Amino acid sequence: MPTRPTPPMPPNEPIRIVVDGKERVFDIDDPKLPDWVQDKAMSAGGYPYDKKMDKKDYEETLENLQVELVKLQYWLQSTGKRVMILFEGRDAAGKGGTIFVVRQYMNPRSARNVALTKPTETERGQWYFQRYVAQFPTAGEFVTFDRSWYNRAGVEPVMGFCTPEQHRLFLEETPKFEQMIVDEGIHFFKFWLNIGQETQLERFHDRRHDPLKVWKFSPIDLAGMTKWDDYTRARDRMMKHTHTDHAPWTVLRANDKRRSRLAAIRRILTTLPYAGRDDSVIGKEDDRIVCSGADVAGK
Predict the structure, then answer these.
(1) Edge-to-edge strand list for the sheet holding 111-114
(2) Parallel, antiparallel, or unpaired for β 22-26 and 83-89?
(3) End-to-end CA distance of the chain
(4) pLDDT of residue 296
(5) Which of 37, 46, 38 is closest to 194 using CA atoms?
(6) Cβ contacts of residue 259 below 8 Å, gap of 6+?
(7) Distance from C-alpha of 111 to C-alpha of 74, rounded to nearest angstrom
(8) N or C, which terminus of the chain has less Cβ within 10 Å?
(9) What's the pLDDT at 6?
(10) Are the C-beta atoms of 4 and 179 separated by less than 8 Å?
(11) Are 244 and 178 in contact (CB under 8 A)?
């Protein structure tokens, strides 16, 4: 098969970054992935598995869980219950792919995804949460957010898109805001997909050189590669302030996308009391992959 050329992009200068305590030079434009990235892409951050889940086992398990998600949707439609799920994590953590498999066989008329672009001039003059509230589920709906109001806890303060006071106020207000969501009767989930630094670099490199994925690689991705520790501090501060009893964070170790996708679906299915739930099909959570935001927050 002939090699497909990558669509043209402005050239990027090699960057100097600290990875696992060592200063490295990383050239995103070099088609060859450095050995120091490739060798640790799976094990980065102390990931507990040394290889991906077997593809056949993954696909069989995923299909069974997706059948349960269809049952869940019937229950929502018959009862009028509402589900809202936030997917957060570093760039390239696998949020979009996880949302895709969650919704793949659900009826899109009542299972929708929200992925908002940057706010308009009008939205910038509104209450910060206002444009997100407009996307909340109505009776019988299942709504996922590919990033959410938690932009103000991560990318905005790290990249200088909000003021320190706006960041502080967000962390103070969010637990109260989310208490109102839960009190309204919405089934509310917050997932943080956690990946290692070398894992992220490998995925960025793949995006940069795959002509089908190159559109995913953005200037924010490029700038973020040098801000790993800044994002870590922002994540930890966010968890400390917003992991609550009423709206806890579920952290999924996501170096292997297959395992983290299954873990997300299992958590949704085991939490909701939908009609016809088959716990033997759902199976048990993998506690090597799933942990609590309290563990990150040190609560």
Answers:
(1) 111-114, 142-146, 83-89, 187-194, 249-253, 290-292
(2) unpaired
(3) 53
(4) 81
(5) 46
(6) 49, 52, 53, 253, 286, 289
(7) 11
(8) N
(9) 60
(10) no
(11) yes
Q: What is the pTM of this model?
A: 0.95
Cα 88 to Cα 64, 147, 150, 199, 252: the distances in Å are 25, 5, 8, 16, 10
- Give whole-number Cα distances, 275 to 68, 79, 267, 269, 270, in Å: 10, 10, 16, 11, 12
pLDDT of residue 218: 87
User: What's the chain's average pLDDT?
Assistant: 95
- Among the listed residues 101, 143, 151, 68, the one whose alpha carbon sits nearest the alpha carbon of residue 260: 101
Long-range contacts of 23-26 (CB under 8 A, 24+ apart): 26/201, 26/225
Q: What percent of the chain has pLDDT over 70?
A: 96
CA dihedral 70, 137, 293, 89 (to 10 degrees): 90
| HSE-up (13 A, CA, CB side) for residue 99 | 26
Q: Pick the residue with more confidence: 12 or 146?
A: 146
How many helices and strands (H and E) does the chain possess?
13, 8
C-beta of residue 267 within 8 angstroms of C-beta of residue 57: no
Q: Does 3 have pLDDT greater than 70?
A: no
What distances in angstroms separate CA 12 from CA 4, 9, 55, 116, 208, one per listed residue?
Answer: 21, 9, 35, 27, 11
Instruction: Tell me how far apart the alpha carbons of residues 14 and 26 are, in angstroms, rounded to a whole number.
Output: 5
What SS3 state is found at 148? coil
Cα(257)–Cα(97) distance, rounded to whole angstroms?
8
150-181 confidence digits (pLDDT tens)? 999 999 999 999 999 999 999 999 999 999 99
Q: Pairing relation of β-strands 142-146 and 83-89?
A: parallel
| For residue 1, pLDDT beyond 50 | no
The DSSP code sequence of 171-221 is HHHHHHHHHHHHHTT-EEEEEEEE--HHHHHHHHHHHHH-TTTGGG--HHH
